[in-house]
Amino acid sequence: MDEVETLLKELTEASGIPGYETEVRRLIQNRFRQLGEVSHDRLGSVICRKCGEASEPKVMLAAHMDEIGFMVSHITKDGFIRFAALGGWWDHVLLAQRVAIKTTRGDVIGTIGAKPPHLLSDEERAKMVDKKNMYIDIGATSSDEVEQAGVRVADPIVPVSVFTILASGKTYLSKAFDDRAGCAVVLTVMKRMLNIPHPNTLFAVATVQEEVGLRGATTSVKVVCPDVAIVLEGTGVNDMPGTAEEGQVLRLGGGPVVTFYRRDMIPNRGLRNLLTDTATKHGIPFQIRADRIRGGTDGAAIHLHDSGVPTVVLSLPVRYVHSHGGIMHRGDFDAAVELLTAVIQELDQKIVSGMTAW
Ligand SMILES: [Zn+2]
After folding, report:
1. Phi then psi for 49, rounded to 5 degrees?
2. Higher pLDDT residue, 296 or 105?
3. Of 93, 210, 264, 281, which has the maximum CB count within 10 A?
4. Ligand 1 centroid to residue 2 C-alpha, Å
């Protein structure tokens, strides 16, 4: 594994559901310490400041460190564990998946179960199983055994998935590419900027609690007070069988995605054009998204800070995002790093002031 693969393995395999980001935060904090001056907001987002040739403009590069997961809500007397979902899970991708319950005494492994098909009526079998009817089975036969294993109500639960390099050598399989891949882009770019002059001050931010409502972005942007912001995200694609042909196709390996429109944010046009013009100038592949996609990104909170912040979202395509088995493409990662590195060098006071000169 090369440096990027090692970083992606370390970040995606780390646990960190919203509000319980300690493990992944430590990894990012340690790396940030080698790249600049580290601080944090009071929800737990981590900020790394690196001065360039000018103190302004202040450029915020944001990626969220939390992942979707679950929490123990109830232990039945027979020893099954009911759970609450934190973040957007699709019920279809849950059954028979392995999870780790993070107890104070260590990880307890279990599988997600439900009433099996041979016990279902024909009508029940034709329907999707609702996650309300699922439970986590740690192989216990009583609530006493569950408690002896150290499991308590409100313990966080994370998906178990091993980072794997797939056959082509260019694609990777893991959980939590949304948004640990974004965190890895930010870390890689910040490392590069140690040796490249830039006419601004960089604030790399790993935010918390994005998946439950953009909360770390809302608080960290108040600490940074940026003049301009670029949000790195993992985003779903639709290049697989069964997707509508007349719709816009975003595909794995097609380059990072510059969002031109989404329900929660319209990016600053000057900043958006700087990204696409810079990509074109350097021959870096990119894709454009302009649809009413579901869900939000940290950009929604950041662009509304104070009197408004020019903001754009740059996303890495991920197949099967929000599941145990996401797939991303190394070419998209490298292109995002190239593009961000080039754009940062363009972001001087004059260019950034021009973005809000109406
Ligand atoms: Zn995300």
Report:
1. -100, 130
2. 105
3. 210
4. 25
Domain range for residue 76? Answer: 70-159
- What is the phi-psi region of residue 355: left when phi exceeds 0, alpha when psi lies from -120 to 50, beta otherwise? alpha
The one catalytic residue in 13, 21, 67, 210 is 210
Beta bridge partners, 289, equal 259
Tokens of residue 97, six digits: 């998946």
Helix 330-346 to helix 177-192 angle (10° resolution) is: 50
Residue 233 has pLDDT above 90, yes or no: yes
Given this model, what pLDDT does residue 293 score?
67
Cα(80) to centroid of ligand 1, in Å? 30
Q: Is the pLDDT of residue 113 over 80?
A: yes
How far is ligand 1, taken at its centre, from the CA of residue 298, in Å?
8
Q: Does 210 participate in catalysis according to the annotation?
A: yes
Q: Are residues 154 and 199 in the same domain?
A: no
pTM for the whole structure: 0.96
Taking 70 as the threshold, does the pLDDT of residue 292 lie above it? no
pLDDT band at 170 (very low <50, low <70, confident <90, very high): very high
Whole-number Å distance between alpha carbons of 289 and 206: 24
Alpha carbon of 249 to ligand 1 centroid (Å): 20
- Which residues are CB-contacts of 156 (< 8 A; sequence separation ≥ 6)? 15, 17, 19, 20, 69, 70, 71, 101, 102
Give the pLDDT score at 154: 97
Residues 31 and 131 reside in one and the same domain: no
Structural domain tally of the chain?
Answer: 2
Based on the fold, state whether residues 321 and 205 are members of the same structural domain: yes
